[in-house]
Design brief:
4-stranded mixed β-sheet, 2 helices, alpha+beta, 4 strands
């Protein structure tokens, strides 16, 4: 599974919504026994921090994005 975009409206941030979505996706990929990957913009430290807290690891970096 490749997560393309996860967008949360500013007024909904820091309420656990994106974390819940990621938890559900991780559960689904575990049940299906498929990997999940995503890219995060290097100029988006909040998103990168969220993904790291959720257990994703940085596996590659381009000029603009990190692969996780």
């Amino acid at each position: 599974m490749h997560l393309v975009d996860l967008v949360c409206a500013p007024e909904a941030r820091s309420k656990g919504i994106c974390s819940a979505v990621l938890e559900a996706l991780k559960y689904d990929t575990k049940v299906r026994q498929v990997p999940i990957c995503l890219s995060v913009a290097l100029d988006n430290p909040r998103a990168k921090a969220l993904y790291l807290r959720q257990g994703f690891n940085l596996i590659g970096v381009s000029d603009t994005h990190g692969s996780m």
